[in-house]
Design brief:
The protein is globular. Helix 13 (about 410-420) runs parallel beside helix 22 (about 675-685) and helix 17 (about 510-515) runs parallel beside helix 19. The strands form 8 sheets. It has a 7-stranded mixed sheet. Helices cover about 30% and strands about 15% of the residues. The protein has about 775 residues and is α/β, with parallel strands linked by helices.
Length: about 775
């Protein structure tokens, strides 16, 4: 003590007071936990640890993310970022309401209670966010503690006796609830959070039956956050979940707390819109009605909705979602927990584009009138007769089938079986250069390290990919790997702000030659990496030099150990939910070269593709059959239009970018005369005189499993075989240029720079292009205003 007081001479009164308080708290904590600490590490060490956890935590937000992910959240496999704990880690005994449980060192009291099966109320705590300790709703009684403690911020100690049902705890929670409700408005009858509100539920359980507050409530001005998130900030209880999510997960420091005490408000500091592609997740995180879905506002109550588990197909990740419907209309889409794919987040496109499912829909068959050259409604029988006649009389060499990027696997295998029976060998997948991508091995077109596995890499090189736009949820994983794990990131190609530091190597494909030769500075980084990883964007698969790029990237992988005995870091990030499944089913041409536009192509069967403008009926003497769910570009250029079902309207199978087969369930019925796609193709096969051998969806799925073993294991990932570059070995030597000439020496790539396949995140397919909400988001992104 004499040494302490001799060292504080000359300090200001405030600093001196802080030092005295720290010393007194150190002594008090040491006395309280002397018995428990002596059984583990000694009183002084334990008290210092507790002091650090309670009053000495001055870490930054970034380090708190790492700490929360690796220690707090992952203790019971509920947190994101950290891997499973080692079994040999020492556990400590604690007592929760008289029951002894053993938990890992470092877990919080709240987590210990959850492990014991005792629920502790909370508002600010979330297992995937850093600990804030704002709400104080999680107060519990700890034996020998002078007052209730916040269980979310207190680490357990050996033999700690925790009580959650005593009169002291009940009184403390009732007091906290009374304080929270002092300024909370009585908006429950008009609040969209009604029926799902944590404040409602906990006030019923832990609150008082009367209020002692007679003064006027405070009011806070609502903030304009954009076209997706509605704010009623008077309801805010300052849990700061939204602030921590934006900073730690989304990586955009756009939300924060200004003011102190009664003047404290959560906002954007200066008036601006939320720019994150994950902003809608704050709606799920908000425990009250302060942040709600703007498109969903005043449309339905939660108890009126029918939930259906499904899969998002608007990007290649295949996020698990829940589709809430009312009658025949999809009312909202929310995320489902899936640790291996999306954890509990989804992108704004997946969450808010559902209004596009009821606009510009095809609800009846159409046929082009040869006199007026316009599409007119016809009966199903008429449309099928025309389609069957065109397919059956055409020369098989003049047939082509195109699979769209949102097509389900059942319809793809049905179309392939029909066209194969007719003798057709010309197949194409939307957005993929079928002449270049080798589908003999899945390792050529999937994420071989899996979505979770990217966090095990120590160096990641992204080629022709803007992961923030192509897969925002995956980008959040990459950010966590960079912030918490120190993974070094580099890009080759154009990209925007990825929300984490990244080294840009350039935009020209020829830089790969420098990496192969070791001339580039980043070559040394790849060489020294233990688990290097390459993420190839889907735009690479549609380039004219796709084969040469993939060959060089395979060489790069073999040269720098991207693929070794226990690690495969070569990843292809597909941009949509139907592409991987089509490639798994071998929906590519069996000939070395497609029939060109002038080689007699007569009939094209377009299964939902919107980017094959060269195949429309106006571009030549071709008969185009379009089967899809929206009246977009594909339907506009067709001779026959067959109305199909969207992903929320049919039971279907999709394969995500890591090769995981997933099932989507029908939430609502297709509109009008539209039908499930595989059923339409089953009828088409009858009229084309090549009837399919399956009549039910179960039989169709048996056919899927016959074609590819991927479909034998639903929601599982089968490891793929790496051929050590053999897939593209035939391209050795010189490389063909755009003019068809042969070159020698270093590989010559196309002159255009590497770019992402996604230019506008909010407009990527027929559904999002029909969405008024996505249109407002695009305008807000471009103008910076929601009006």
């Amino acid at each position: 003590d004499a040494l302490f007081f001799s060292s504080v001479k000359g300090l200001s009164s405030n600093t001196l007071l802080l030092c005295v308080r720290r010393m007194m708290m150190r002594r008090a904590i040491a006395r309280v936990f002397a018995s428990s600490s002596s059984s583990s590490r000694g009183g002084r060490s334990s008290s210092a640890t507790i002091e650090t956890c309670i009053i000495g935590n001055t870490t930054t937000n970034e380090s708190r993310v790492a700490s929360s992910s690796s220690s707090s959240s992952s203790m019971f496999s509920t947190g994101g970022g950290g891997g499973p704990l080692k079994e040999e880690e020492e556990k400590v005994p604690v007592f929760v309401d008289g029951r002894e449980v053993h938990v890992h060192k470092g877990v919080t009291v709240l987590q210990a209670c959850e492990h014991a099966g005792v629920h502790v109320p909370r508002f600010c705590y979330h297992p995937r966010l850093s600990i804030a300790g704002n709400c104080r709703m999680c107060l519990v009684e700890v034996e020998k503690s002078p007052k209730p403690v916040a269980s979310c911020a207190m680490p357990v100690m050996p033999n700690m006796n925790i009580k959650t049902t005593t009169d002291l705890v009940k009184k403390a929670r009732e007091g906290v609830m009374e304080f929270l409700l002092i300024n909370h408005p009585l908006d429950c009858p008009i609040c969209d959070q009604g029926g799902e509100c944590e404040l409602q539920d906990q006030s019923m359980i832990f609150g008082s039956d009367r209020s002692r507050f007679t003064e006027g409530k405070r009011a806070v001005e609502d903030k304009e956050l954009g076209p997706l998130v509605k704010t009623v900030m008077t309801r805010c209880i300052h849990c700061t979940r939204c602030v921590r999510f934006a900073t730690e997960v989304a990586g955009v420091q756009e939300l924060g707390v200004t003011g102190r005490g009664g003047q404290a408000e959560i906002g954007t500091y200066v008036s601006k819109l939320l720019s994150s592609e994950l902003s809608g997740n704050v709606v799920d995180l908000c425990p009250v009605g302060a942040l709600t879905s703007k498109p969903f506002a005043f449309t339905a109550r939660s108890w009126e909705l029918k939930p259906t588990e499904s899969i998002d197909v608007l990007d290649g990740l295949g996020s698990s979602i829940r589709v809430d419907s009312k009658g025949s209309e999809v009312m909202r889409i929310t995320p489902r927990l899936h640790e291996g794919v999306n954890e509990e987040w989804i992108s704004d496109k997946a969450r808010f584009s559902y209004d596009g499912l009821k606009r510009q829909r095809l609800d009846a068959p159409y046929a082009k009138n040869p006199k007026t050259n316009k599409l007119e409604k016809v009966t199903w029988e008429t449309a099928l007769e025309i389609v069957g006649e065109q397919l059956s009389k055409a020369d098989p060499r003049n047939l082509r089938a195109v699979a769209g990027k949102l097509a389900d696997c059942e319809s793809i295998v049905a179309l392939k079986d029909i066209m194969t029976s007719l003798g057709c060998v010309n197949f194409e997948v939307e957005g993929v250069n079928a002449d270049a991508v080798n589908v003999d091995s899945r390792s050529n077109y999937i994420m071989n390290s899996n979505i979770v596995g990217v966090e095990d890499a120590d160096v990641i090189l992204m080629v022709g990919a803007d992961v923030r736009l192509e897969a925002p949820v995956l980008n959040a994983r990459l950010r966590r790997a960079n912030v918490a794990g120190g993974v070094k990131m580099a890009t080759l190609g154009h990209h925007g702000d990825l929300t984490y530091p990244v080294e840009s190597l350039g935009t020209e494909a020829s830089i790969i030659n420098d990496l192969l030769s070791g001339k580039h500075a980043f070559s040394e980084t790849l060489k020294n990496a233990k688990n290097p990883c390459i993420i190839v964007g889907s735009a690479v698969l549609n380039r004219p030099d796709c084969a040469q790029l993939l060959k060089s990237l395979h060489q790069l992988s073999d040269q720098y150990g991207v693929v070794n005995n226990d690690w495969n870091g070569f990843n292809v990030l597909q941009a949509s939910g139907g592409t991987t499944g089509a490639l798994d089913l071998g929906f590519v041409s069996t000939k070395s070269k497609h029939i060109s536009e002038n080689d007699g192509l007569k009939v094209v069967y377009n299964l939902g593709s919107e980017t094959t403008s060269s195949y429309d009926s106006e571009s030549g003497k071709k008969f185009v059959i379009y089967q899809g769910h929206h009246g977009d570009a594909g339907a506009a250029g067709a001779d026959i239009v067959l109305p199909g079902a969207a992903y929320t309207e049919k039971d279907a199978t999709y394969v995500n970018t890591e090769g995981r087969a997933q099932r989507a369930l029908a939430a609502v019925a297709p509109p009008g005369l539209a039908r499930a796609d595989w059923k339409i193709l089953r009828a088409v096969s009858e009229f084309a005189m090549v009837p399919l051998k399956y009549n039910t969806i179960e039989q169709c799925r048996e056919r899927l499993a016959e074609v590819s073993p991927t479909f034998n294991a639903i929601d599982d990932v089968e490891p793929s075989l790496w051929l050590n570059g053999a897939s593209y070995a035939h391209l050795a030597g010189g490389t063909p240029t755009a003019k068809g000439k042969k070159t020698s020496g270093a590989t010559v790539f196309a002159s255009e720079p590497l770019t992402s396949s996604v230019g506008n995140f909010y407009m990527t397919d027929a559904i999002t292009k029909a969405s008024a909400t996505m249109a407002r988001c695009s305008k807000a992104k471009a103008t910076g205003s929601a009006f």
